[in-house]
Automatic annotation (TrEMBL), chain A:
It comes from Apilactobacillus kunkeei. The chain crosses the membrane at residues 12-34, 66-87, 99-123, 129-148, 178-198, 260-283. This is Phosphate transport system permease protein PstA. The keyword Transmembrane helix applies. The gene is pstA. The lineage of its organism: Bacteria, Bacillati, Bacillota, Bacilli, Lactobacillales. Keywords: Cell membrane, Membrane, Transmembrane, Transmembrane helix, Transport.
UniProtKB/TrEMBL annotation, chain B:
GO terms for biological process: phosphate ion transmembrane transport. GO terms for cellular component: membrane. The keyword Ribosomal protein does not apply. This is Phosphate ABC transporter ATPase. Residues 20-259 form the ABC transporter domain. GO terms for molecular function: ATP binding; ATP hydrolysis activity; phosphate transmembrane transporter activity.
């Protein structure tokens, strides 16, 4: 066959595959939005869930998901940043570093049910933290750490080594070179990692059933005392997230409008993830521009 | 490749003030030795070129002078700067590199504004006064012959500069530290001829104030710019003399073959 024909076939196949992937994605999101969006209303977003009656909302679950994400990032980002900087900049290239990297990969491939049960036994039961947002955030940190660490590591490594030489040649220490020059240049990549891990946090259900719990007790959104049982900020209260709510409504919901609630919740979940992506990109771009004065 | 007796060398001693004197320097990367017993002095306020084929060790030797080989290679021997052996473990390398600046082969401006490229290291070294910083930015950019091209866009990203401009920014960044010695590792080899000649003009003006050591594989460049030339071959210093002598009356066969393009 002549090269032109081969090239055309190959290009055709690749285009076909891309269209297939995009079509599946579009169909999924489209279906979820089309079936879900009609059920979204101000009332749906702002009222608490109902156990037996129709007309329940997802106010608490929506807030719990976002709060859980914030807590998880607060716990996991500093650890991942430190580990990523170590692996990318300081770790010697030897068998020990390889073991660390392999361990991180293994951690990321653990089934979420297993991690959930482990955290249930250790944090919820042994350490008496109970079903709580904090237990959930720690469980999610287990998933988040490998992803974020790897991402920060590769983002740092992708910054040219010429930049490190430049910093050192100006009499800057390695640490100042990393924090002042390399890290700012790696911001866009790190933001992408945060977005990916956030998607996972929003979507995770299995591990949270055992850790953050399946109930959303009454919370008072005007109570800012984080030690109060009814405060929305209390990290030790049980907190059903949106993803867990969808699972629960679908599997054991007995409200007459269970179907509508689950469709609406799914649509809200997707929309929140999209909004978070846009928001994170926006923040990331602003940050990058501020630190590198690029236009 | 022809075989030359690497133990024969012709190194002329000049009765001048030297900025840097290296004595019996050996450099090895793990098992692989790439510099063999090199003793070489660099006269103050002069331009010394180091020439030689790829892998001759000239860049490795250059990087030993400001300790950029730390954690990369093992450097033995004494390198004297202001009567101090800077190859000593106890030397504060961060302080040393303020005195011995470096410009690299590929332009490597930071992903920051043009102004910050120059002020970033200065600030980290404790210069906070805004007037002083502005002054350094202007002076160093003028010395590097870049001021007129960038004075209206100092706060734009340095990544928008052309390769030649970026390299002159790197020179400005290095001289803003007010170093004594400027090391240049093939500073124009990644640039087009016009940018190259601008860089050479810049360096020609700088040699009144700095001791310049330049690694180059461009022999026209070496003969145009330098006062002294050292020829390296396979990790050995073969010949060191005034540039005019090296290029007209080389003493060693290897040098003659290399500069006449009759090499290997």
């Amino acid at each position: 066959m002549n090269p032109k024909v081969v090239n055309k076939i190959a290009t055709g196949v690749i285009y076909g595959l891309v269209i297939l992937v995009v079509a599946i994605l579009a169909a999924l999101i489209g279906y979820i939005l089309v079936t879900g969006v009609p059920h979204i209303s101000w009332h749906f977003l702002t009222s608490p869930a109902q156990s037996f009656l129709a007309g329940g909302g997802i106010r608490d679950q929506l807030f719990n998901s976002i709060y859980l994400l914030v807590l998880t990032l607060i716990i996991s980002f500093p650890i991942a940043l430190g580990a990523g900087i170590y692996l990318a900049e300081y770790a010697p290239k030897n068998w020990f570093t390889e073991i660390i990297k392999t361990t991180i990969e293994v951690l990321s491939s653990l089934p979420s049910v297993v991690v959930g049960l482990f955290c249930y036994l250790l944090f919820v039961v042994q350490m008496r933290m109970g079903f709580s947002i904090l237990s959930g955030a720690i469980a999610l940190t287990f998933f988040n750490l490998p992803l974020l660490t790897r991402n920060i590591e590769t983002s740092l490594e992708s910054v040219s080594s010429l930049q490190r030489e430049a910093g050192l040649s100006l009499g800057l220490s390695q640490w100042k070179t990393i924090t002042g020059i390399i890290l700012p240049a790696a911001v866009p990549g790190i933001i992408t990692g945060i977005i990916l891990s956030a998607g996972r946090v929003f979507g995770e259900a299995a591990a949270l059933i055992y850790t953050a719990g399946q109930s959303a007790p009454f919370v008072d959104y005007t109570n800012w005392n984080i030690f109060s049982d009814t405060s929305f900020l209390n990290p030790l209260r049980p907190a059903e997230t949106l993803a867990v709510h969808i699972w629960k409504v679908n599997s054991e919901g007995i409200t007459p409008d269970a179907n509508a609630i689950s469709s609406g919740s799914s649509a809200v979940l997707i929309i929140v993830i999209l909004l978070f992506n846009i928001f994170a990109h926006w923040i990331g771009n602003r940050l990058y521009k501020k630190m590198t004065s690029s236009k | 490749m022809k075989n030359y007796n690497l133990n024969q060398q012709y190194v002329r001693d000049f009765a001048v003030e030297n900025a840097i004197e290296a004595h019996h320097v050996n450099v090895s990367y793990g098992e692989h030795q790439s510099i063999f017993d090199v003793s070489l002095s660099f006269p103050r306020f002069k331009v010394t070129a180091m020439i030689g084929a790829s892998g001759s060790g000239k860049s490795t030797f250059l990087r030993s002078i400001n300790r950029m080989n730390d954690n990369v290679a093992t450097v033995d021997g004494d390198i004297m700067y202001r009567d101090v052996n800077i190859n000593d473990d106890k030397i504060n390398v961060y302080e040393l590199r303020k005195h011995i600046g470096m410009v690299f082969q590929r332009p490597n401006p930071f992903a920051k504004s043009i102004r910050e490229n120059i002020t970033f290291a200065l600030k980290k070294h404790g210069i906070k006064d805004k007037k002083e910083l502005d002054q350094r930015v202007e002076t160093s950019l003028k010395e590097a012959a870049l001021w007129d091209e960038v004075k209206d866009k100092l706060d734009e990203s340095a990544l928008s500069l052309s390769g030649g401009q970026a390299q002159r920014l790197c020179i400005a960044r290095a001289i803003a530290m007010k170093p004594d010695v400027l090391l240049l590792d093939e500073p124009a080899s990644a640039l087009d001829p016009i940018s190259t000649s601008k860089i050479e003009d810049t360096l020609n003006r700088l040699k009144e104030k700095y001791t310049i050591i330049i690694v180059t594989h461009n022999m026209q460049q070496a003969s145009r710019m330098s006062d002294y030339t050292a020829f390296f071959h396979q990790g050995h210093l073969i010949e060191f003399n005034k540039t005019s002598h090296i290029f007209t009356r080389p003493k060693m066969q290897a040098t003659e073959d290399y500069i006449s393009g009759n090499f290997g």
